[in-house]
Amino acid sequence: MSLQEQLAEIKAQALAAIEASDAEKSLNDVRVKFLGKKGEITSVLRGMKDLSAAERPQAGKLANEVRDAIQSQLDEKKAALATTVLNAKLAHETVDVTLPGSPVMQGQPHVIQQIIDQLIDLFVGMGYEVATGSEVEEEVYNFEKLNLPKDHPARDMQDTFYITPSILMRTQTSPMQARMMEQHDFSKGPLKMISPGKVYRRDTDDATHSHQFHQVEGIVIGEHITMADLKGTLKAVAQNLFGDSLDVRLRPSYFPFTEPSVEADITCFNCHGDGCNICKGTGWIEALGAGMVHPNVLKMSGVDPEVYGGFAFGLGPDRFAMLKYGVEDIRNFYLNDVRFLTQFNQKG
Ligand code: PHE
């Protein structure tokens, strides 16, 4: 076979192999087989030395043409294969944007947190700081520094989860009164603080009791702070949570850490004072405990009762949420049943 014939044969075989290959890998094999260093064209070119000087240029030219033809066919096929792969991928991964999406449930603040957030907004607006404190508390702060020495009968009012004899789950947010007074620099102005958080009592859970519930403590200590300031502050709370026209009344009560102590009622938001089943016909709703901070408590926190004084209050967001939304069983707040909780969603 002449060299020309060999080249023509090689070209025909190569083009057929290219045509038949259906993957990049087999294309590469074709390239190696025909165009590679040890490939067929190279070996044909090696035979050129047997040709006469007159024949060589023509044979060389033909060899180059065959090589170029194979190379360009390889390139073309490679591009075609890539397009096929891409098209298959696109077809496989196509997203139908008209299909309905699966809805994503969006979280919301818990209804009690919503009430706490509303109170935080109100009090921060009146210049209070917010201090949350710790749910695991020292017995000294939960009781002793609040004028409740060890044998005090009022300790029975708050049955307690003890962790050790001196560490407990706080039964109230009032320990933050003592902690904040100890830290406060009164030369820089009065202490105005609220402390929202969870508290714990060894109660048997029922419709109105939960062993874990919430309180928001408030305290203002400075010079010339009076009970009128307390009443005005509580009125702001009542009106902010329940409506503008509501009033507050104070009734004498007892807490070891306040003197005098009061129970604050707010006008029934439902009947506006006429009497209904929510307020049990009285026109008033018991809302919170409060009073003027006891001189002993001030002293134990290093505050001079001759110079400084003020009020404290403790309110229950759980109770407020129950009243506001007509929830009859406090346990609903803690069961985390989304059917219950989503009723209080603020948006969407
Ligand atoms: N800590 C009291 C309670 O849990 C409420 C309270 C707070 C009363 C502050 C007076 C002042 O019952």
Automatic annotation (TrEMBL):
Bilayer-crossing regions: none
Cofactor note: Binds 2 magnesium ions per tetramer.
Essential cofactor(s): Mg(2+)
GO process terms (BP): phenylalanyl-tRNA aminoacylation
Positions that bind Mg(2+): E259
Pfam families with a match to the protein in the record: Phe_tRNA-synt_N, tRNA-synt_2d
Places the protein is found: Cytoplasm
Domain of life per record: Bacteria
Gene Ontology cellular-component terms listed: cytoplasm
EC number of this enzyme: 6.1.1.20
Subunit and partners: Tetramer of two alpha and two beta subunits.
NCBIfam families: pheS
Protein name: Phenylalanine--tRNA ligase alpha subunit
